[in-house]
Amino acid sequence: MEDEKRVDSLQASFEGIYMDYSRQNVTAKTMELLMDLAEEARVLDKFKEMAQGKKINSTEGRAVMHMALRADKGDPFSVDGKDVVGPVHEVLGKIKAFSDKVRSGAHKGATGKALTNVVAVGIGGSYLGAEFVAEALSTGPAAEGAKGRTLRFLANVDPVAVERSLRGLDPETTLVVVISKTFTTAETMLNARTLRKWIVDALGEKAVPLHMIACSATPDKVKDFGIDVNNMFTFWNWVGGRYSVSSAVGVMPLSLHYGFETIQQFLKGARSVDRHLLTAPPRKNLPLLMGLLGVWNSTFKGHATRAIACYAQSMLKFAPHIQQVDMESNGKSVAIDGTKLPFETGEINFGEPGTNGQHSFYQLFHQGRVVPMDFIGFIKSNFPIDNTKIGEVVTNHDELMSNFFAQPDALAYGKGPEELKKEVSANCGNTSLHSVSDHTASFCALLCLGQQNDSNAPHLLSGNP
Question: Global pTM?
Fold first, then answer.
């Protein structure tokens, strides 16, 4: 892999995101064959069919239209001949109006106090993506919009999780967002009833419509629960749970916390990746390249795991979200025609922010198993600290990024010193993704790259996306 010419041919970029896959265990011929596989499987054509509203989820007879959730007004997305972008923007307008009222204090709680605390109740795709974005924005410029506000997520039915989500909160100033498409998800509804009792015990039954709202597609059940259906923010059966962060599921709690204008930038970043996926040529198409490399490592090379190393503390919740997106999308051993696939599919995903992971599980990679990795980093920090003024040789961010650039080389090329016990194995293939700075659109573009990347494998391996 130590061939300087590789970097020129095994790299791609898009709107400030640079992808270097020259350290992957591939040759030019490998990539040529993988491109042939993508063409034979009609991967990019299938993404275009997805955008056209074709029911590519054939087992459930559903369209897969998460790209419509971040489309511009007038973009041609339809299902069964009916425009879906108009309804999406109607819901976005409703979210903006409501979140603005809450943030301005126009929508008050039962005792007349402003609602400054939000608890979002959901599980799986109903919280993982939103939690990632909330964490990612919490230390950047967007954090200014959240001053004096609290956003927490409640997913687990463990009573400790309930206690932690409510600790220090006052029912008088708390708004609960119940997130469930069907309003029947067992864990979510048990937690919702628990929080409903918390509100009623403190403020009375009349407080429920003022302190609880819903993201759901079942108004009857929402009404029966005691929530005002005017405060129900809908999404559709063509929104898969793992992709729902850009629907009301994510946009509602995030807008309440950061403001709708900030979340518009989030949607803009996702939209740019969608357009790149649909229009970029195959060899420069980042989601396609990432998907091909994932299939190469897992199905062809037999590596069952993938590590995600984000050298940015703001990306703390990225790996857990991608775990769900990838392992739910690709955790299927049956082809779309119902026959059992003759090979293993999917990867086991895990990760930890660098440099924490280096002191946790990298030892196994350096001297044990081959585990393909994705490295993610940012050239600039939102919080630069100039330690050189106090005699340090490097700044915190320079130290972080030195590791970001050094670890991929060490894993790919290895080191063979005199003592075997100090030997560092080679050929641990990896991809590096880096952007200039960790701003809202960059976070969202990286999130969307992860989502669209993980949609490739089902198309390549005849699975159900």
Answer: 0.91
